[in-house]
Amino acid sequence: MGAVLSPLDGAGLRTDAVVARISAAIGLGVITDGEQLPSEIDLANQLGVSTMTLREALAVLREQGLVHTKRGRGGGSFVRSSAEAVNTRSLSRLQQLSVEELRDIGDEHLAVAGTAAMLAARRGVAADFARLRALAQRLADSDDAVQNRRADSRFQIEVAVCSQSARLTRAEVNLQAELSALVWLPQVGIQSPERAGRHLALSMAIAGEDEVEARALAEERSATDVRRLIALRMELIRQ
């Protein structure tokens, strides 16, 4: 929660940035369906923005169907997000991205994920390895599309946490917010057992302190994801 809803750095339009950050928290499962968001004052303070900016962002999120607001006693803003709604928004988002933009995002994730995995193998401890295995197993045991996506994202963020780099962790959180829902579009064709197998292999490389193998596995996964997204984007162009 702290990593996702951390203060904004001031880049870009503030309202858009708040929308993106809250959408990320919902998409990554940090705030779950039906859960109430913090009060406007608390959430604005967390993100380092004015309450006016936050209210503008909440209005956008309501239009997108991500939150709904209740008035009166027991009121507030609550998360409302289904797999169908997420997929619809993600497909629309993919159509807005050019192949060049997808490649750029992929290049950034390749660098972040590979370096985080390498450092996790160098710096990780036993408790880290146990968390990684548990997250990989959660993905292997799940047959729910939303839970699969969230378990996948949580694993990749946890690898960054194991790297003991705050900057890499923030970068991975931001990239997961941007990529996760796209990568798990049904049209991309990711299979959770195969994905879980990749994660288990990576967790073993990290636990074995094999920096070269850990980096290679993380980079291979990232590159494969972007190739699939670019292929889907090209297919959408032809339609």
TrEMBL record:
<dbReference type="InterPro" id="IPR008920">
    <property type="entry name" value="TF_FadR/GntR_C"/>
</dbReference>
<dbReference type="InterPro" id="IPR011711">
    <property type="entry name" value="GntR_C"/>
</dbReference>
<protein>
    <submittedName>
        <fullName>FadR family transcriptional regulator</fullName>
    </submittedName>
</protein>
<dbReference type="InterPro" id="IPR036388">
    <property type="entry name" value="WH-like_DNA-bd_sf"/>
</dbReference>
<keyword id="KW-0238">DNA-binding</keyword>
<keyword id="KW-0804">Transcription</keyword>
<dbReference type="Pfam" id="PF07729">
    <property type="entry name" value="FCD"/>
</dbReference>
<feature type="domain" description="HTH gntR-type">
    <location>
        <begin position="12"/>
        <end position="82"/>
    </location>
</feature>
<dbReference type="InterPro" id="IPR036390">
    <property type="entry name" value="WH_DNA-bd_sf"/>
</dbReference>
<keyword id="KW-0805">Transcription regulation</keyword>
<dbReference type="Pfam" id="PF00392">
    <property type="entry name" value="GntR"/>
</dbReference>
<dbReference type="InterPro" id="IPR000524">
    <property type="entry name" value="Tscrpt_reg_HTH_GntR"/>
</dbReference>
